[in-house]
Design goal:
The protein is of the alpha/beta class and 97 residues long. The protein is 28% helix and 14% strand. The relative contact order is 0.20.
Length: 97
């Protein structure tokens, strides 16, 4: 079993009498949506998925969550393969930082 180093879990002073407030790290959030079959009814599953996720990310704003502007949407692509343009873009974005 691997032993965690002393710096693996930095200590934060959370005592009420502390003069130093704990720092929060911003967490950039991307939303990826996918729907297997395109729909022509004007309201896609991707849009509903995005709105739901968007509301959740916004509810976490006080915890440092920030929604990035770019949308990653694969409407009409099967989940059976990873050969999906928006999936590849979101993965590239993650690797680029």
């Amino acid at each position: 079993m691997r032993k965690a180093s002393a710096n693996a879990f930095p200590r934060t002073n959370l005592r009420p009498d502390s003069l130093v407030a704990p720092t929060r790290t911003s967490i950039r959030c991307a939303i990826y949506t996918r729907q297997s079959v395109s729909s022509d009814d004007g309201l896609s599953s991707c849009q509903i998925q995005f709105e739901s996720c968007d509301q959740f990310v916004r509810s976490q704003r006080s915890n440092g969550w920030l929604l990035i502007e770019e949308r990653f949407e694969d409407d009409g692509y099967s989940g059976a393969t990873s050969d999906r343009p928006a999936l590849q873009r979101v993965l590239d974005s993650i690797w680029e930082g």
